[in-house]
Amino acid sequence: MMEKDPGIVNKADEFLMMFRKGEEFTKELLRENEKLRYRVAQLEETIQRSSDDTKIKYYEERIGALEAELNSLTERYRQVESENKDFASKYVEVEEQNNALANLYVASYQLHSTLDFNEVLRIVLEIIINLIGSEIFVVLLIDEKTEEIIAVAAEGTNLDSVPKFRVGDGIVGTVAQKGESYFSPDFDNTGSKAEWDPLVCIPLKIKEHVIGVIAIFSFLQQKGGFTNIDYELFHLLAGHAATAIFSAKLYTQSERKRTTIQSFLELLKEKPNR
């Protein structure tokens, strides 16, 4: 089961604290209002028993005091209103992050539910489309013998048209070599497919070992930039996708070897015809 993100927990705690603060201030306003009503009633009773000059003096004093209290309460109300707007914004942000993490949890479960290499790649493509909002992107794996970075799955472009990259060359090669994500400083939703320079390039890492990269060249039209949630999804997706792809690849290779060995043993068991 995926552990809760400490950042999400902290924001949830902050949300509860702000909610309690608003609740306490509302109760305080009600108490102050009750006190004012009581004091007004006392003032009216006192004025009824006093002379005209005394009544006027009382009116002036009490009106001044009430205006000062009203101004104070108005200012505090504005502060609380501002805090409530901030609270609502944080609440929406927490909701978005919770939804994103829930979607990623479901997606990661799907990734690790199969050891079929092609099925894993298909799931990875669906996750990048649905959660990240990418339009043109490629999943590439490193050939340890030749140090070439070869595309194994693509969306929005023909797989055969994707060139082979080399470790250490260009954006893709540098990410594969250093294991550090790349984000284009100038977000251009039209992408740069012709030059094969990605807007985003994420290393597929198992601990510190890079097995490949996810290169995104274009996003859907409605996406105007990167959010904090996007960066979190990139990070979590890269780890889960790397583990699933690596496991499925090893399993496929072992199955092929097992089938080959089994076929060889069956040939040895056959007696030659005389």
The CATH architecture classification of the largest domain is 2-Layer Sandwich
Please report which band the strand proportion falls in: under 5%, 5-15%, 15-25%, 25-35%, 35-45% or over 45%: 5-15%
Structural class: alpha+beta
Integer-rounded radius of gyration:
33 Å
Q: How would you sum up the global shape?
A: elongated
CATH class of the largest domain: Alpha Beta
- How would you spell out the order of helices and strands? HHHEEEHEEEH
Overall mean pLDDT score? 79
Please work out how many helical segments DSSP would assign.
5
Any overview of this molecule?
- With 274 residues, this protein is an alpha+beta fold.
- It folds into two domains: 6-109; 133-260, Beta-Lactamase.
- It is 62% helix and 15% strand.
- It has helices at residues 6-48, 52-111, 117-132, 170-178, 228-269, and strands spanning 134-143, 148-155, 165-166, 182-183, 200-206, 209-219.
- It has a six-stranded antiparallel β-sheet, sandwiched between helices.
- The two termini are 62 Å apart.
- The model has no long low-confidence stretch (mean pLDDT 79).
